[in-house]
Amino acid sequence: MSITKLDLSNKSSASACLPDDFNLVLSNLPPSITTFSVDLSMNKLTSLPDNFGLVLPHSVTVFSVDLMGNQLTSLPDGFGRNLPSLKKLDLRNNKLTNIPDGFVQNLPHLVEKLYLSNNQLTNIPDGFGLNLPRLEQLYLSYNLLKSLPDGFGLVLSNLPSLKVLDLSNNQLTSLPNGFGLNLPSLKYLVLSDNQLISLPDGFGLALSNLPKLIKIDLSNNQLTSLPDGFGRNPLSLRELYLSNNQLTSLPDGFGLNLPKLKELFLDNNQLTSLPVDFGQNLPSLTYLIINNNKLTSLPHMYGFGENLPSLESLCLDNNQLKSLPDGFGQNLLNLRELHLYNNQLTNLPDGFGQNLPKLEYLSLNNNQLKSLPDGFGRVLSYQPNLIGLYIFSDDNEVNVVQQIKETLSNRTALISECKHALALGYTRIAYKKVLKIISTELYNYNVRIYTERAYKPPYGLVPNRLMKEDALIEG
Questions:
Q1: Could you tell me how far CA 381 lies from the centroid of its own chain?
Q2: Measured distance CA(410)–CA(403) in Å, rounded
Q3: What is the DSSP letter of 15?
Q4: Which runs of consecutive H residues, i.e. helices, occur in 249-385?
Q5: 291-311, pLDDT tens digit by residue?
Q6: Are 125 and 149 in contact (CB under 8 A)?
Q7: 2: pLDDT confidence band, cut at 50, 70 and 90?
Q8: CA–CA dist 449, 442 (Å, integer)
Q9: Could you count the other beta carbons within 10 Å of the beta carbon of residue 211?
């Protein structure tokens, strides 16, 4: 199908009406054009005429209408009635405060995308979406929604083709019962940056029955707990974001049977513990981010982290860990960064750091270390990719500092293998910048020691989760 684009964007330099030539162009389309898209974006339209679309020749089909970036405050009651074949509608970045009743009933063939994000919507009408069985992507982010209609969960269950549902950056405090049920095509569920206090009963079970679900984003809410079954069994799930909530615990079974999960963000909560079987069936997990919580210990069962063969980044900094389980920090063949700074560790388990051939960053600074395991320097000597080692703090005893100096200066293998500076402390700028050389001898061996405080070791690998709407769908 050949689609002709009618580009009338940026035409209204001062007018609040449709461009003067809009209806004239539509009424004089050549017979060769049977399907086209209309771009009216980035004008200064404050309203649309009631007869929007009426001048179209009977044989012409409008595939898409782009009204993005105008100043529309409302839509005509009959909007869409004259565009029965419309498949894509973009109304984002306007000033819409409401959606007329019957809005989507006039758009039965809307198949691809409905953009209503970045408006000022305070509610959506009852039954919104009931007549859109082929809709694939629905964006309602960046509005002022405080609640969803009671029947919205039922409405969603009538959208079997829906792949993306984005309700982020609103003011939602709860979700209606039935939310998430019967969405066989859903891949991306984005509910971040709301004010959600809790999730409906059965929500966890509903998610486990979504066979194509790839991403769940509930970050930046006010959740204190998760419903039973949450985080368990969505076999296709790859990304789960729960950052910046008020979670104190995770439900039993959390993380079980998630064979494709790659990213798990639990940072900035109030977690005091993790389930005993946490991490036992996450073979694809690459990023595990649990920093800024209140963890005092890690699960001992099976050896925390031993069954995470794909893990590249493990962030546990800014917790209250007093010790690490036996076997921790061993046999993570793909681990590239391990962050444990700002805890209360007094020692490290024997064998810590063994068999980590890809390790680049290890941060242990600002703990209460009194000693290092025997062979710690020898272990480091087998880390050819090591870029940053952060270990000093005011609370570390003097003998640790001296032990590290002696270990490094006596381990020629370590010195010969370490191609980059070893950062043994803090720096106010990049870790590769030498601020203070403590030992001339170490300097001659090309090992740098940093002692300035107030530096946070870098997260070199943690991915940027911010995405544009069009980037949610792969490909």
A1: 36
A2: 10
A3: -
A4: 376-380
A5: 999 999 998 755 566 678 899
A6: yes
A7: low
A8: 8
A9: 12
Residue 83 domain-assigned (yes or no): no
Element (H, E) at 26: helix 22-27
pTM for this model (two decimals):
0.85
User: Within a domain: residue 373?
Assistant: yes
Give pLDDT tens digits for 160-199.
999 999 999 999 999 998 898 889 999 999 999 999 999 9
Question: In b/e form, how buried is each residue of 388-397, taking b as 16+ CB within 10 angstroms?
Answer: bbbbbbeebe
Q: Quick check: is 103 in a domain?
A: no
Mean pLDDT of the chain: 78
What pLDDT, on the 0 to 100 scale, is given for residue 12?
A: 62
287 φ, ψ (degrees, to nearest 5): -120, 120
Q: What secondary structure, in 3-state letters, does 405-441 show?
A: HHHHHHCHHHHHHCCCCCCCCCCCCCCCCCCCCCCHH
In total, how many domains does the chain have? 1
Q: Which residue has the tokens 């590249």?
A: 312
- Domain-located, residue 461: yes
Question: Are the C-beta atoms of residues 168 and 145 closer than 8 Å to each other?
Answer: no
Q: What secondary structure letter does DSSP report for 379?
A: H
CA distance 295 to 332: 21
Per the model's pLDDT, the better-predicted residue between 13 and 447 turns out to be 13
- β pairing state of 239-241 and 215-217: parallel
What CATH number is associated with residue 393? 3.80.10.10
DSSP string, 186-245: --EEE--SS------TTHHHHHHT-TT--EEE--SS------TTTTS--TT--EEE--SS
List b or e across 182-201, with b for residues whose CB sees 16 or more CB atoms inside 10 angstroms.
bbeebbbbbbbbbebebbbe
Calculate the CA 194 to chain-centre distance: 14
pLDDT tens, position by position, 92-114: 999 999 988 877 777 777 778 99
* Domain range enclosing 338: 271-475
Residue 288 CA to residue 265 CA, distance in Å, equals 6
